TrEMBL record:
The keyword Transcription regulation applies. SUPFAM superfamilies: Winged helix' DNA-binding domain. It comes from Candidatus Omnitrophus magneticus. InterPro entries: HTH_MarR-typ, WH-like_DNA-bd_sf, WH_DNA-bd_sf. This is Bacterial regulatory protein, MarR. It comes from the Bacteria. Transmembrane segments: none annotated.
């Protein structure tokens, strides 16, 4: 299969995979209570802890103003809060509230359960190879965006 045939096949598979996965996501994402970028921000804060706005903007590869708009909406929903840094009062950090942490844990639990169900009938060898390829794609995408 040449690269153009591969690309065509991938374009056909992506929507089907995304649709199948979204059927099993928690209500927060599937019913539009939070957007995918909001989920990514919450997930980033869950994994990395309180972070400066510039760090979050760098992660999203977007402007600080765009990131501020995203975080403002999460603050209004009570999912994150802004907090002055104790070591440098000029620095403002963003962190999860208990409500935000609870939501992200619920979403992660649903995703984990679905991934187990989805991949349990695929051999361990194939799952390992799939992860290897995905990690390679993530690396290539990260290098391309930099």
């Amino acid at each position: 299969m040449n690269i153009n045939e591969f690309a065509e096949k991938m374009m056909g598979l992506y929507p089907r995979i995304a649709s199948a996965i979204s059927q099993y996501e928690s209500d927060y994402l599937s019913q539009g209570k939070i957007t995918l970028p909001q989920f990514w921000a919450l997930d980033y804060l869950y994994a990395n802890g309180a972070s400066a706005m510039t760090t979050l903007a760098r992660f999203f590869k977007t402007s600080k103003a765009a990131t501020t708009g995203l975080t403002d909406r999460l603050i209004i929903q009570g999912l994150i809060l802004r907090k002055k840094d104790n070591s440098d009062r000029r620095l403002v950090k963003i962190e999860l509230t208990s409500k935000g942490r609870s939501i992200i844990e619920t979403i992660r639990k649903h995703k984990h359960k679905h991934l187990v169900r989805l991949f349990k009938n695929i051999s361990a060898r194939d799952r390992k190879e799939y992860l290897r390829i995905l990690e390679q794609v993530v690396k290539l995408v990260s290098e391309t965006k930099s």
